[in-house]
Specification:
Heat Shock Protein 90; alpha+beta; five-stranded mixed β-sheet; Helix Hairpins; 472 residues; 13 strands; six-stranded antiparallel β-sheet
Length: 472
């Protein structure tokens, strides 16, 4: 059972069926109440019409035994005088309830010389004032039952008062049968009890089929992702439905995620391979020098050993910084003066001039200083004689430019130089160049600080690197 309702299809079917069931019950109850109310009102109208017909005869002075409508064909009729004294009733009336009197046979007349008015009931303070021969404007209604000539039925009774000239105030009760109302309500209820379950079955079946069809691409995505996980082949992609719905967008997003993951893994593999290659050279050189020194101490190249050690230390530091950046290390939010940082980075460097205005950004002073140092190292490596550093505002950004007067960077290589371990042909010598990580580190730090780092052609024809960062 848990496995069944762990299915989205089952939960969707159950939810849709429950919603429709609640709606059907509410609608059915409203229909039954409305039907019952309308039919009850129609029965009350018929009963009031019969009661007014009898009251009109009484107002005209018609004797009780001459009253029309007492044959029982249209329903039971009672005429009450005084304190609920029955003075006239329908023929063959055997039993009645729901009126002011349960008597079925007229009672004996009042004493000679008197009239029905002598037995009037004055206890009702809210009795409507009527003139002789006048019929009350409002009727009251009650439900009850009556048995006429052996047939027992439920009735809707209407009661109306009439003031006569010689018999005082009389109250007329007339009933209309409720058999039609009961029959219609029972028929509607039966139809609902039979039709609603069938309709719910149809809703459940249609919902099951529709959700099955809608979720079929999801199952395809799931099975393909399971196969990718088992095979570890990130080049595979999940099928994308030829639709424009949420499932299609899920498939496209999944493929984009797989592509990004594949790129990241491939980049990591290249990074590990390149790092191993770059580390191998200084380590091998250092080992060779140490082995030679061990056998022939007089041949020890101490300066070369120190240089290889320093290069190895710098490479290890670069790799460690890249690892931290890849791990998502967030920069600090300290306020950094780029002008002061640029002057510090340029201090002691030959041929470097700084033209800077005070500009503050938020971030890591150490990482931003590393960016400037890497850009200056790169510029000095390729400059003929001069390197210029500028710091200024550009709208809501801080702009740092590092330009040299060297040969510049070809337009086709201006993005490739920011890749890790990439060195252009003119800078492949390890004696003159680094491991190809300086610009990659600079761009990664810029991106982590919400900025950009781009390469262009400088005013002197050399390379121009522009660092843009949000102002603090």
């Amino acid at each position: 059972m848990r496995r069944l309702f762990g299915s989205v299809r089952a939960r969707a079917t159950l939810g849709a069926t429950l919603v429709v069931a609640v709606a059907l019950v509410a609608a059915g109850a409203a229909v039954l109440l409305s039907l019952k109310s309308n039919l009850m009102g129609e029965a009350g109208t018929r009963a009031e019409r019969s009661a007014r017909a009898v009251a009109s005869q009484l107002a005209a002075g018609t004797p009780y035994d001459k009253l029309a409508g007492l044959d029982g064909d249209d329903g039971p009729v009672q005429v009450l005088a005084g304190k609920k004294r029955l003075v006239a009733a329908s023929e063959d009336l055997e039993k009645i309830s729901g009126t002011d009197s349960d008597r079925v046979k007229p009672q004996a007349p009042v004493a000679p010389g008197g009239d029905d008015a002598d037995d009037s009931d004055d206890s009702d303070d809210h009795e409507e004032d009527l003139d002789p021969g006048e019929i009350a404007g409002e009727s009251t209604f009650k439900n009850g039952s009556a048995t006429i000539d052996g047939d027992a039925e439920d009735y809707r009774f209407a009661a109306i008062e009439v003031e006569t000239h010689d018999r005082g105030r009389l109250k007329v009760y007339a009933g209309a049968p409720l058999a039609a109302e009961h029959g219609a309500v029972q028929t509607a209820l039966t139809v609902m009890l039979i039709g609603f379950p069938l309709l719910l079955g149809v809703v459940a079946g249609v919902t099951w089929l529709v959700t099955r069809r809608a979720l079929r691409p999801v199952e395809g995505i799931r099975s393909e992702m399971a196969a990718i996980t088992a095979s570890q082949d990130l080049a595979r992609r999940v099928p994308e439905p030829q639709t424009h719905d949420e499932v299609a967008r899920l498939a496209r997003t999944t493929n984009e995620t797989l592509a990004a993951l594949e790129t990241s893994v491939e980049r990591q593999r290249r990074f590990v391979a390149d790092a191993s290659h770059e580390l191998r050279s200084p380590i091998a050189s250092l080992r060779t020098q140490l082995e030679v020194a061990a056998a022939h101490p007089e041949l020890l190249d101490l300066d070369g050993a120190v240089e290889d050690t320093v290069r190895l230390q710098r490479l290890a530091a670069d790799l460690l910084l890249l690892a931290r950046l890849d791990a998502g290390e967030r920069p600090g939010d300290a306020k950094v003066d780029l002008a002061g940082l640029a002057r510090e980075a340029a201090e002691g460097r030959k041929g470097v001039t700084v033209d800077a205005e005070p500009v503050n950004v938020a971030g890591s002073r150490g990482q931003l200083g590393r960016v400037l140092a890497n850009l200056l190292d790169n510029a000095q490596r390729h400059a003929r004689s001069a390197v210029t550093v500028s710091v200024r505002r550009e709208g809501d950004l801080a702009l740092v430019g590092v330009a040299d007067d060297g040969d510049g960077v070809p337009a086709s290589d201006r993005e490739r130089i920011f890749e890790r371990f990439v060195r252009l042909d003119a800078a492949r010598s390890r004696d003159d160049g680094g491991a190809g990580l300086g610009l990659a580190i600079a761009r990664d730090v810029a991106v982590r600080h919400g900025g950009t780092l781009t390469a262009a052609q400088g005013p002197a024809g050399g390379a121009l690197f522009e660092l843009r960062l949000p102002l603090a």
